[in-house]
Amino acid sequence: MNRVEIKNLNKKYSNFSLKNVTFSIPNGYVTGFIGKNGMGKTTTIKSIISLNHYDGSVIFSNTNLHENFDNQKIGVIMDDSFLAKDWDITLVNKAMKVGYDNWNEELFYSYLIRFSINKKMKVKELSRGMKIKLMLAIALSHRAELLVLDEPTSGLDPSMREEFCEIISEYMEDENHTVLFSTHITQDLESIADYIVFIDEGKIILSLEKDEFLEYFKILKCDLEHQNTINESAVLGKKINQHSVEFLVRADDMKAVSNKFIEDKVSIDRIMVLYGRKK
Length: 279
Ligand SMILES: Nc1ncnc2c1ncn2[C@@H]1O[C@H](COP(=O)(O)OP(=O)(O)OP(=O)(O)O)[C@@H](O)[C@H]1O
Prior knowledge:
By secondary structure, the chain is α/β, with parallel strands linked by helices.
């Protein structure tokens, strides 16, 4: 069952547009949202959480978020924090108590202890990593059923990143919980994502279960002298190194591979590096 259905989402800026962005976020799973810089991840996420005007529909549990945003059930972590900078943590708690029907103050303070955030600190005094932890504590303490995370781990040190992923895994133990997780740190997705949505130049290129996503591609390597023997129409991107060339191809287009090529391991990182690259 899908928890969120995003259909024909269009958004136009002067130099960029989202083009009929359509994908689903399955209930009970972590969906990783990937794409190179500037390809439209944040614009899509801002539309999903109604921070953007857009055309199209975003259906969450039978509610069209475009018309009626359900902030009680949705937790958001992104750079644009919705918290007033002068609030200290005690005030944050008070404001959340008013704003959320299911606010659990005890749980909130227990997360703050776990994350080593002092109640007396003001929002403006927190580092990026601490703000991310605070937003995670808020999302978990109002019992959100959907977490929308825009590059949440990019300001975190490796141990906190691991802890963040562990907390998301704990959160996913409830089968009614769902996560959309945009990131450039593909190791995080390899450990916790079940599905991958891949956006490029404002268009959804693929939306698949993670293993199917990795099997969709092949990475082939050959010597410089054999680079022109490949079927160009199957090539999705290539990188010319000093002595070799790497090609990203669709696996279905390259079932039989000539012995001039060797297959390399496919990873989300290599797909990101090679996709759309011309030299
Ligand atoms: N408010 C805005 N006004 C005009 N253009 C914008 C605005 N916000 C984003 N853009 C443009 O839209 C494009 C997509 O930006 P977006 O932030 O969605 O990309 P992204 O995939 O999240 O990138 P990154 O990985 O770098 O965070 C970029 O070219 C950006 O300059």
